Every structure is written in C-alpha cells, then in structure tokens.
C-alpha cells in the first residue's frame, strides 16, 4: 500500500463518520482518486470524478453513490484532508480522557498529571480524569477534581490497580473508554505509561503517539525523534488519538480552583488480569528533591572518575536545594544508581538550572536535559559538545572548579 493511503475499519463509529462526510456534498476539495475496498473485494481505484483534471477542486456528490457501501479501506489524496474531515465531521463529540498518575504512598496527584491536564486543555475538549488505584485513591480523586479545566473525575478503586500493574491498569482504561467513547486519551510520558499505554492502544486498535511536546490541533502533534535530533510534526487520522505527553514541555495546571464532579469509573469484570503480580519494591530514600521535578539538577559524568567524587556534587546540590543526576557512563560504572540517569534511556528533566559536570554531551544525554532553562557546563575539554548547548561554559578541571563554586555559593 502506498504512503498516501489511510485505513479505516468497518466499525460502527467509522460508518457514522463517513455518513457525515457524505452528507457534506457540494463541498469542493482537492483530490485525485479514492481507493475503496469493500469486504471480499479487490482494492479498486475510483477517480473522484472521471472527467476531473488531476489536482483540481472536485465535487463530492459523485462520492455519495460510490461510498455508500461498507468500507474496509479508503485512501485518498491528500491524506491529511480526509483525516481532518473525519475528525471534524465525525458524529462523536470530541472529549479527552486523562489517565492520572499519583503517589500511592503520599496519596497525592503527581505533578506530571497536572502537566498532562494542561496539554489536554489545549485540545479544547471536555476533560475527564481517570484515577485508578487502591485504598485511598478517593483522596487523590478529590485533588484531581480541584484542578481547573477538569469537568469530571472517574475513580477506579481496586486492589488490582494499587501498584499500577500494566495488565490491570490497561483494563481500567479500556473499560472507561468503551463507556465514554473519548476522542483522545492522554497520559504523562513516564516509565509507567511506557508499560500500559501500548497495551491500551493495542486493545483499542489505535496507533499511539508518544512524547508529545506540543499540540497543534485535534489531530496534529509535535514530538521528538532520533533522540531529539529531529522534531516531527505528525498528523494522525486515527479516530481515537492516544498520546503520551512529555511533561517538561507543558506547565503544571493549578491544583486548586476547579470543582469537577466525581463518579465511580465503569466496572471491569475481572480487574485482576492474573498475568503479573506485584512482589516487592525497593525505593531509594533521599532528602533531596525528586530528579524529574527539581528546580536545580547537578549531574556528573565519567569525568568524576569515582563514586566518592560524587559527594562533591551532593554538597553543591544541598546548598542549591537541588537534585543530583548522572550520565549513563557514570551509572554504568556504578557511581550512581540507575534511577538518577538523565537522558534518552533515563529521566527527562527541564529544571531552571542544569549543571553538567564532567559530561561530554553525547546526544543521548542531551535529549534528556536540553530543555532546561539555563544550562551550565564544567569540562576540561573546550571542544566537548556539551558547550554547544550550554548557556554558560567553564573550561576547567572539575576537581578545582566544583569545590570553589560550592564555597562561593
Ligand atoms: C541507545 C543509547 C542510549 C543511551 N542513553 C543515554 C542516556 O540516557 N544518558 C546518557 O547520559 N547517556 C546515554 N547513552 C550513552 C552516551 O552515548 C554517552 O556514552 C554517555 O552520555 C557519556 O557519558 P559521559 O559524558 O559521562 O562520559 P564521556 O563521554 O566519557 O565524557 C566525560 C567527560 O568528562 C570530561 N572530563 C574528564 N575529566 C575531567 C576533569 N577532571 N574536569 C573536567 N572535565 C573532565 C571529559 O573531557 C569528557 O568530556 C546512551 C547510548 C546509547 C547507544
């Protein structure tokens, strides 16, 4: 199938969408041909209007008779226009479901959920938030209900959702979608959503779009590709858009001022999917702020040479009330724990101040921190690529520069 083709399934929703599309006769738009596949048919190509010169505006009336059959596959030039028509004239009202993340132990809605609600607001649809969890989840739901812009909060309380087990959580999301028929499902980009969102997408037969950093319209989104080397603007013609949102790209929604209604989420017949079980977790305790949400992050790389030398960074971080991060090289050499890795395969951070110490600035590291508001680099190699993204660069030996800086702060 050619690149210009789009597929649509023969579902109830699609039939409605196309009915609306066909009602829209008399409208002119640029199209050369439609390819239509009915059940049991070969794919057949039909010109929109046999006498119509290629690329000229055409009358859609001709399509009425042709498309009044159960469609499996329809393709058209230009593809995007059809996608837009589908979403604009579909019979479903656009509505957005945000799947909340929250801290079970603290009973709080996560800042990443607030950022996702901001992203959802930009779609300008009514926003429903699904809060799934174990006992105590109602308190989190109350917090979600107070976020301005949220019109409804659905609470799924069950022990099966307590630890965010992907197989169980995805069932809750799917059941909620089936009852609400949302046009968009949004979740924060996170380790947790990397696990359950693909399952949700597979169960609902939709291609997810991950790591969205900007919303252009209902169907057009901006996302990084190739570890942030390219920024792609993608348009989807999926009737259901499933997105994960890079939370560093959206401000947190205010946590008070709203008054959404709270309801019980649609029931799942067997919330415990029985495919995986929670055994234990080991959470590292730190008095420092959490890496992803810290205002100041001080990261060290292979240049620190030993685990002990990271204490220099910790002393500076404590003075600046910041978090400590690390490059993958430092993590691979066991100088810092895995959860403090910043980059493509680690955490994505965008603090007010990011200080990179003894880090060369490989693209995989940059993709996790280059959206920081101010970047400062200390490196003894003046050619190090980190200086290309740094607002302030110090070419110096870190073993002199860091203690000196700590003294002066
Ligand atoms: C698929 C994939 C995913 C990856 N994901 C990540 C990721 O998420 N995060 C990540 O960080 N990397 C990631 N990497 C690895 C990445 O490519 C680099 O290898 C890594 O970031 C290098 O870490 P570094 O800058 O600490 O080490 P190096 O590249 O070795 O740089 C050390 C720097 O320290 C400087 N230095 C040495 N001594 C001193 C001194 N005394 N004073 C001042 N400066 C000094 C050196 O000049 C040098 O620039 C990934 C790679 C792949 C292939």
TrEMBL record:
Gene3D superfamilies linked to this entry: HUPs (3.40.50.620), TPP-binding domain (3.40.50.1220)
Keywords for the protein's UniProt record, in alphabetical order: Electron transport, FAD, Flavoprotein, Transport
BP terms from Gene Ontology: fatty acid beta-oxidation using acyl-CoA dehydrogenase
PROSITE patterns named among the record's database cross-references: ETF_ALPHA
GO CC list: mitochondrial matrix
UniProt-listed Pfam families: ETF, ETF_alpha
InterPro entries: DHS-like_NAD/FAD-binding_dom (IPR029035), ETF_a/b_N (IPR014730), ETF_a/FixB (IPR001308), ETF_alpha_N (IPR033947), ETF_asu_C (IPR014731), ETF_asu_C_CS (IPR018206), Rossmann-like_a/b/a_fold (IPR014729)
Subcellular location: Mitochondrion matrix
Cofactors, names only: FAD
Annotated GO MF terms: electron transfer activity; flavin adenine dinucleotide binding
Membership in a protein family: Belongs to the ETF alpha-subunit/FixB family.
Name recorded for this polypeptide: Electron transfer flavoprotein
Organism name: Nannochloropsis gaditana
């Amino acid at each position: 199938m050619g690149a210009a083709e789009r597929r649509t399934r023969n579902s109830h929703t699609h039939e409605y969408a196309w009915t609306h599309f066909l009602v829209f006769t008399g409208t002119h738009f640029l199209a050369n041909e439609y390819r239509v596949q009915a059940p049991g048919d070969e794919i057949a190509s039909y010109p929109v209007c046999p006498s119509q010169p290629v690329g000229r505006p055409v009358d859609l009336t001709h399509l009425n008779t042709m498309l009044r059959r159960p469609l499996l596959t329809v393709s058209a030039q230009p593809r995007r226009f059809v996608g837009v028509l589908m979403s604009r004239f579909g019979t479903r009202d656009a509505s957005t479901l945000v799947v909340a993340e929250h801290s079970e132990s603290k009973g709080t809605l996560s800042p990443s959920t607030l950022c996702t609600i901001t992203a959802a607001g930009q779609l300008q649809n009514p926003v429903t938030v699904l809060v799934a969890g174990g006992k105590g989840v109602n308190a989190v739901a109350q917090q979600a209900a107070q976020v301005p812009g949220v019109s409804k909060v659905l609470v799924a309380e069950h022990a099966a959702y307590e630890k965010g087990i992907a197989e169980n959580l995805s069932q809750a999301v799917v059941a909620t979608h089936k009852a609400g028929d949302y046009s968009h499902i949004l979740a924060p980009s996170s380790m947790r959503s990397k696990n359950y969102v693909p399952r949700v997408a597979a169960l609902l037969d939709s291609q997810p779009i991950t790591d969205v950093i900007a919303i252009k319209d209902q169907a057009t989104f901006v996302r990084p590709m190739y570890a942030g080397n390219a920024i792609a603007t993608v348009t989807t013609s999926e009737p259901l858009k499933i997105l994960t949102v890079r939370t560093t790209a959206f401000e947190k929604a205010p946590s008070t001022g709203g008054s959404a209604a709270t309801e019980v989420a649609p029931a799942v017949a067997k919330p415990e999917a029985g495919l995986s079980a929670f055994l234990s977790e080991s959470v590292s305790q730190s008095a420092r702020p959490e890496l992803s949400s810290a205002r100041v992050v001080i990261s060290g790389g292979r240049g620190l040479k030993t685990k002990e030398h990271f204490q220099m960074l910790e002393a500076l971080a404590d003075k600046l009330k910041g978090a400590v991060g690390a490059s993958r090289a430092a993590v691979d050499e066991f100088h810092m724990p895995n959860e403090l890795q910043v980059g493509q395969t680690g955490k994505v951070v965008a603090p007010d101040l990011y200080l990179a110490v003894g880090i060369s600035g490989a693209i995989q590291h940059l993709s996790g921190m280059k959206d920081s508001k101010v970047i400062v680099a200390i490196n003894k190699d003046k050619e190090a690529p980190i200086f290309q993204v740094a607002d302030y660069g110090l070419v110096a030996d870190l073993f002199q520069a860091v203690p000196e800086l700590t003294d002066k702060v």
